[in-house]
From TrEMBL:
The lineage of its organism: Bacteria, Pseudomonadati, Pseudomonadota, Alphaproteobacteria, Maricaulales. Keywords: Isomerase, RNA-binding. Gene3D superfamilies: Pseudouridine synthase, RNA-binding S4 domain. Pfam families: PseudoU_synth_2 (PF00849). This is Pseudouridine synthase. Residues 49-76 are annotated as: Disordered. Residues 49-60 have a biased composition (Basic and acidic residues). It comes from Glycocaulis abyssi. Belongs to the pseudouridine synthase RluA family. Residues 16-75 form the RNA-binding S4 domain.
Length: 327
């Protein structure tokens, strides 16, 4: 067993979840074992109790209790051939700095107490230890599309800084209920996290400027096509990266996303099509010094392709004029 030690969060570990940080430094400690250490207060941040989803800041001190040596712990689980093939099937692009994946709907990005299969766990398909890719941003479980993972600590720090700023261009496609008026514009406001009656920690609600926990959010949108007055194909560009931002903003505008059971509006959902969430991270443009920007695009998942066909939307149309309205 090791002794109690204090570790300082490094600059390139900004905004990383504690459970991910722990897995990076102590890969032999299982998720279940870490959760027990957190529940009993043996792992602390700056002397306080925290949960696994706590996001760390550079300079914070993490208390590490006595841990079994790697040889004393159970051997790490190996990824199955099936999961390795599945992970590889998601690859859209790969170079020396990153891997771009097309995440399917329903796949969580990170693990939890009741989550067994998740994207972070599938990254073992691409290497272990220092060779293992690192998450630098997230998508909601039911949102599909482009997500990138970094190769190495320096690339992770570079990409994480881009996602925290406004240098990346993120474009989403959604099926919104009803007709957006005006057809293009901005949705702004403040929002904060709250706890629902069902104990959902990820529920966002409208907030006032200056209110504790309130964060400003800005989304630009443009309508690509309409299906009568039933639904709109909306192209979205979040200028800020708040939790559930696009879902909250469209519902607040009175045009919730088809299949969203959490953020709803007065317009009834479409019948005769999939009730899965119709929100897709379609494109990501990453600036690169001395090179052309890297443009990553992900094809629609099947449930959205089927809905596009049912509504008469052409996913292959030239989007330049629509995206020009996003500024």
């Amino acid at each position: 067993m090791s002794k109690v030690e204090i570790r300082t969060v490094a600059a390139d570990e900004a905004d990383i979840r504690l459970d991910r940080w722990f897995r990076r430094h102590f890969p032999h400690v299982t998720h279940g074992a870490l959760e027990k250490l957190l529940r009993t207060g043996q792992v602390r941040v700056d002397g306080g109790r925290v949960k696994g989803n706590h996001r760390l800041e550079p300079g914070q001190e993490v208390r590490i209790p006595p841990l079994p040596a790697p040889g004393e712990a159970a051997p790490p689980k190996t990824i199955s051939a099936e999961d390795k093939a599945f992970a590889r099937s998601m690859v859209l692009y790969e170079d020396d700095t990153l891997i771009a994946l097309n995440k399917p709907p329903g796949l969580p990005v990170q693990g939890g107490s009741k989550v067994v299969r998740h994207l972070d766990g599938l990254l073992d398909a691409f290497g272990t230890g220092d060779r293992r890719p690192r998450l630098v941003h997230r998508l909601d479980k039911d949102t599909s599309g482009v997500i990138v993972v970094a190769k190495g600590a320096s690339n992770a720090a570079w990409l994480a800084s881009l996602f925290k700023g406004r240098d990346l261009e993120k474009t989403y496609w959604a099926i919104a209920l009803g007709i957006m008026v005006p057809r293009a514009g901005e949705i702004t406001g403040y929002m904060k996290k709250t706890v629902s009656n069902q104990g959902d920690r990820e529920l966002m609600v409208a907030a006032r400027h200056g209110e504790e926990g309130a964060q400003y959010a800005l989304t630009r949108y443009a309508t690509a096509d309409e299906a009568g007055r039933r639904a709109s194909w909306v192209v979205l560009r979040p200028e800020t990266g708040r939790t559930h931002q696009l879902r909250v903003h469209l519902a607040a505008a009175g045009h919730a996303i088809q299949g969203d059971g959490k953020y709803v509006c007065d317009v009834p959902p479409l019948g005769g099509v999939s009730q899965k969430l119709h929100l897709h991270a379609r494109k990501l443009v990453i600036p690169r010094e001395g090179k052309k920007p890297l443009v990553l695009e992900a094809p629609l998942p099947k449930h959205m392709t089927d809905t596009f066909e049912a509504l008469g939307f052409d996913a292959g149309m030239d989007m330049r004029a629509v995206e020009a309205q996003l500024g």
